[in-house]
């Protein structure tokens, strides 16, 4: 009698078959790319610096020599991955390619192309693994920007012509260096945002967007978003353990992380001073400390050397178009992830749209533009009648568009350090007078802090620095003895309304403002351009304001040596300081209400109707 043996395998044979099947399954997952052999390439004897990888990577430039390959005689990059972590990045880059390559036109235009890999075993972690990807230029975007002649070089690489500039809403080429740089930044930023949005639309976050990972192809003139070795899935979590709402939150957070990286890239492209690691570290520390990005301009005016080799072109570019560049930068770097702008909305932002594209501004952007224009006019320090009329006009518009009229909003926005920028009241300087003591005013700050109890009480401290110039040649020599004036007071915050007087006998609601300020405001908001954004048909009879009820004031003044003991000079210096500064900064009880506040600007009105405009600054400023 013959017995049949059971069809069983030994443990060793079973383990071998499992290994083979696992290897086959991995190769099936990578079937959308080519498995190369090292003999398919001719290694070049040099490597471009712009292709430099990490410490666990070895990079080669090569030419495909296999005549049967569709990449025959194509220049590629071989990235040999050493550590286990690097190999995981390489395999991840191949995995996500299956999703991205569905839209071939977008993939070839905006993503670095992964052609395949070289590996003897897909299972063994110790087996060498080399990623084969496209060669899109010898330099990363960082290396482009570090060149002294980067602007004409990039223009030549992109072959800018009438057709290429039309892509960003422009119709000119050449021109001043600032216009050329702005045009180029628009082209690069729009390309980058389109590429990042392409990745996001496939459920992926790049997570490693840096200048080093961006390359510009001289063939199709597009930015290539780097290898997605660390790409993260929006819905990677187990659906059974996490709700769909959590998946949406994860998606928003990951997109926000990428957008912050885009903000850093834009900052370095525009402000080339940030290519200096030390200055960029200060820039990043400013944001890490929780400072609002809307105050970046105030910070960078002090942090960036005004005599730098970059010529301060970056500051001028961001100031153009009523400060639109600063607005976009603040939205990309917003402290709250959910407040950051998306790729599609960034592409519609006026900073990235040329003059030929009509963009309807949001009410938030209009407020920003009014504030930026007010700051720029005030910084010119030319207070003729025309400038004063324009400043009064813009302050009136800002007050009508105040986003936070209720006192409860002021509880969080009012505390901080505010620099006095402009006052619509009188301006008395040194030029046309012969004072007994000549004093040069430095900076004037108003520091507001919340008192613990009650919650609506604030401590306000006015800081004024000045220099007593003793020499006769004061017009040319501004050196002298330094001094400080400090005024302390307390405010209680209350709800109030500001009434507009309409009697014909009244020449102006504010005696120190221009007589036609209201008429000018009404004419502006009634125009076709503004009517769509501002639903105001006439100047309102009253506006909600934050009423400020002050207490007694305490004044302190100090003078440095050798005038610290000279009482007569101190009295004359104090009188001269009071003559030059707005009286509201010396007697804080004259400030009666706040009419405008946001994250960067503050407008306070005094008892005589004049307006004090402040800009928020930080201790880093």
UniProtKB/TrEMBL annotation:
GO MF entries:
ATP binding; protein kinase activity
Checking SUPFAM superfamilies in the record gives: Protein kinase-like (PK-like) (SSF56112)
Keywords (A to Z) from UniProt = Plastid, Transit peptide
Main location, first listed in the record: plastid
- Entry-linked InterPro entries: Kinase-like_dom_sf, PAP/fibrillin_dom, Prot_kinase_dom
Spell out the Gene3D superfamilies in the cross-references: Transferase(Phosphotransferase) domain 1
User: So which domain of life are we looking at?
Assistant: Eukaryota
Question: Where, subcellularly, is it found?
Answer: Plastid
Using the UniProt annotation, give all residue ranges assigned to the region (Disordered).
Answer: 1-25
Q: Which GO terms describe its cellular component?
A: plastid
In this chain, composition skew of type Polar residues spans 1-11
Protein kinase domain span: 43-352
The protein's matches in PANTHER family, at most eight in alphabetical order, are given as: PLASTID-LIPID-ASSOCIATED PROTEIN 14, CHLOROPLASTIC-RELATED, SERINE/THREONINE-PROTEIN KINASE STN8, CHLOROPLASTIC-RELATED
Listed name of the protein = Protein kinase domain-containing protein
What is the organism field in this record?
Anisodus tanguticus
């Amino acid at each position: 009698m013959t017995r049949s043996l059971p069809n069983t395998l030994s443990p060793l044979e079973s383990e071998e078959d499992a290994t083979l099947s696992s290897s086959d399954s991995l190769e099936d997952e990578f079937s959308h790319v080519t498995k190369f052999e090292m003999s398919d390439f001719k290694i070049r004897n040099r490597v471009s610096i712009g292709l430099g990888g990490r410490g666990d990577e070895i990079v080669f430039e090569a030419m495909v020599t296999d005549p049967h390959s569709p990449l025959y005689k194509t220049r590629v990059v071989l990235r040999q991955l050493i550590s286990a972590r690097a190999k995981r990045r390489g395999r991840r880059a191949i995995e996500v390619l299956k999703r991205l390559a569905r839209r071939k036109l977008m993939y070839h235009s905006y993503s670095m192309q992964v052609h395949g890999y070289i590996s003897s075993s897909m299972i063994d972690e110790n087996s060498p693994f080399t990623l084969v990807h496209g060669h899109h230029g010898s330099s990363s975007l960082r290396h482009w920007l570090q060149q002294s002649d980067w602007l004409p070089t990039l223009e030549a690489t992109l072959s800018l012509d009438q057709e290429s500039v039309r892509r960003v809403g422009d119709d000119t080429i050449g021109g001043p260096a600032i216009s050329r740089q702005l045009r180029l930044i628009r082209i690069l930023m729009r390309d980058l945002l389109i590429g990042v949005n392409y990745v996001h639309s496939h459920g992926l976050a790049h997570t490693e967007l840096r200048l080093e990972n961006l390359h510009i192809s001289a063939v199709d003139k597009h930015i290539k978003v780097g290898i997605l070795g660390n790409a993260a899935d929006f819905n990677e979590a187990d659906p059974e353990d996490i709700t769909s709402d959590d998946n949406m939150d994860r998606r928003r957070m990951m997109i926000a992380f990428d957008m912050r990286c885009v903000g850093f890239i834009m900052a370095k492209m525009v402000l080339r001073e940030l290519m200096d690691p030390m200055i960029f570290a200060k820039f990043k520390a400013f944001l890490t400390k929780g400072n609002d990005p809307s105050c970046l301009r105030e910070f960078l005016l002090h942090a960036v050397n005004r005599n730098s080799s970059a010529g301060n072109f970056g500051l001028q570019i961001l100031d153009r178009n009523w400060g639109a560049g600063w607005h976009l930068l603040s939205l990309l770097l917003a402290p709250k992830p959910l407040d950051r702008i998306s790729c599609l909305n960034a592409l519609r932002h006026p900073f990235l749209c040329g003059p030929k594209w009509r963009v309807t501004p949001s009410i938030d952007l209009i407020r920003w533009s009014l504030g930026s224009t007010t700051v720029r006019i005030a910084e010119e320090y030319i207070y003729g009648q025309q400038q004063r009329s324009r400043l009064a006009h813009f302050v009136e518009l800002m007050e009508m568009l105040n986003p936070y009229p209720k006192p409860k909003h002021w509880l969080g926005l009012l505390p901080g350090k505010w620099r006095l920028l402009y006052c619509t009241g009188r301006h008395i300087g040194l030029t046309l007078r012969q004072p007994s003591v000549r004093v040069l005013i430095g900076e004037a700050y108003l520091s507001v802090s919340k008192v613990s109890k009650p919650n609506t009480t604030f401590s306000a401290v006015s800081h004024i620095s000045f220099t007593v110039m003793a020499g006769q040649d004061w017009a040319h020599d501004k050196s002298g003895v330094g001094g400080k004036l400090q005024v302390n007071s307390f405010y209680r915050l209350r709800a109030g309304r500001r009434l507009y007087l309409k009697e014909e006998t009244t020449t102006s609601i504010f005696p120190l403002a221009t007589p036609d300020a209201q008429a000018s405001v009404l004419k502006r908001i009634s125009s076709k351009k503004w009517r769509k954004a501002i639903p105001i048909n006439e100047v309102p009879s009253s506006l909600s304001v934050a009423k400020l009820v002050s207490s007694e004031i305490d004044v302190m003044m100090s003078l440095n040596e050798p005038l610290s003991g000279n009482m007569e000079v101190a009295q004359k210096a104090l009188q001269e300081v009071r003559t030059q500064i707005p009286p509201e900064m010396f007697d804080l009880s004259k400030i009666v209400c706040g009419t405008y506040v946001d994250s960067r600007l503050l407008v306070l009105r005094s008892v005589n109707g004049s307006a004090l405009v402040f800009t928020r600054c930080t201790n880093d400023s």
